[in-house]
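Tip: read the tokens left to right.
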């Protein structure tokens, strides 16, 4: 059996790696994989068609110069799928790229089951998009329990599998501090400037200025920056000029150990917020994109008009569990104040941990493995098609 899996960014790569493990656990080691992925999927045995980093871009303005290259990669990917004729095509998030691939496969190889993992947030904006997805996909696997009805009403088969973040094991904070020479009583700030070139380029200078403000207030402060291969070189270069030494770490083990060791985190908005919530690390969320991209997204496309928060933990709990400082609020003095409040207020840290745990329960913590349920859904659809 050959399953073609496509991820376009690190969060999707993490989902893909776990799905691959789940598929092997349920379908045996004879299952083969092809597609596009990053370090996690490669570690699970995928030989990526091309580097996933080429697809990892965010913001309308930032995407524009990359469009010719991306469209070329769409054609290359479609040709590879048609040539291989896999038993199923599974795309993960990144609908700007994966949607084009799915539509092309529907036209050129309609017999291949088409599955998408991670529902576009049509419940927050663009509710008519569900009708478009229903015309293209055979199955949608959602992370949130309230999402399937938004799609089934338009005839799309949708199943809630749960969010794989709840499968994240606990890191070893004591081992991390010992490994990097950080005393147990020293405050440790975990800084996560994002996984895309565009977002790290905007956030790294802001993080540096934020750290300048924090350095005087917390003279014993230590800093760790978990990163991914898509932006590792840029991050390592940037931290050389930061006012405090920052330890850059890579890999899932180091990242989760850092989360367990940290006192407070400052993170770019994204899936990592869920990992931080799962780890129980009090966090401030921030983000900044190109002003024109932000204007277009909020004014012309209506993004965000149906939802009050950017962070899924806050959306689930319907309150600002994790402080959000986005766009114009992404300023060093505001970030430093928010981070400082968490450092100084043990009660605020504990309250965020408790709320984050509740959010994880909503995502399926304590229930069956989401990756196992996703694997069962994929294999079930393949089995149905095989019987026809």
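Filled-in amino acids:
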């Amino acid at each position: 059996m050959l399953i073609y899996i496509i991820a376009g960014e690190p969060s999707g790569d993490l989902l893909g790696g776990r799905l691959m493990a789940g598929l092997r656990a349920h379908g045996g080691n004879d299952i083969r994989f092809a597609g596009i992925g990053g370090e996690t999927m490669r570690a699970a045995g995928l030989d990526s068609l091309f580097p996933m980093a080429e697809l990892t871009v965010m913001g309308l303005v930032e995407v524009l110069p990359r469009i010719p290259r991306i469209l070329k990669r769409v054609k290359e990917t479609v040709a590879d799928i048609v040539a291989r004729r896999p038993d199923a095509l599974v795309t993960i998030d990144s609908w700007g790229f994966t949607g084009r691939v799915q539509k092309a496969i529907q036209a050129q190889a309609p017999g291949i089951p088409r599955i998408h993992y991670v529902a576009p947030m049509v419940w927050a904006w663009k509710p008519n998009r569900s009708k478009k997805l229903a015309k293209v996909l055979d199955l949608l696997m959602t992370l949130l329990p309230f999402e399937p009805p938004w799609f089934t009403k338009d005839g799309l088969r949708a199943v809630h599998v749960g969010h794989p973040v709840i499968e994240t094991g606990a890191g070893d904070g004591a081992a991390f501090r010992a490994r990097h020479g950080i005393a147990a009583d020293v405050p440790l700030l975990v800084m996560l400037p994002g996984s895309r070139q565009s977002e790290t380029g905007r956030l790294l200078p802001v993080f540096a200025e934020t750290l300048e403000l924090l350095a005087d207030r917390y003279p014993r402060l230590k800093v760790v920056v978990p990163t991914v291969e898509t932006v590792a070189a840029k991050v390592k270069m940037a931290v050389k000029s930061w006012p405090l030494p920052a330890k850059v770490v890579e890999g899932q083990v180091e990242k989760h150990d850092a989360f367990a060791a940290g006192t407070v985190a400052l993170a770019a908005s994204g899936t990592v917020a869920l990992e931080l919530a799962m780890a129980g690390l009090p966090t401030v969320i921030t983000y900044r994109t190109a002003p024109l991209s932000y204007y277009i997204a909020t004014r012309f496309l209506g993004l965000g008009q149906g939802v009050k928060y950017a962070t899924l933990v806050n959306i689930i709990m319907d309150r600002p569990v994790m402080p959000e400082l986005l766009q114009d609020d992404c300023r060093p003095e505001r970030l430093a104040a928010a981070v400082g409040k968490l450092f100084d207020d043990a009660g605020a840290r504990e309250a965020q941990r408790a709320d984050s745990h509740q959010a994880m329960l909503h995502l399926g913590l304590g229930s069956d493995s989401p990756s196992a349920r996703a694997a069962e859904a994929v294999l079930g659809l393949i089995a149905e098609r095989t019987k026809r």
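The two ends are 17 Å apart (CA to CA). Residues 62 and 361 are 36 Å apart (CA to CA).
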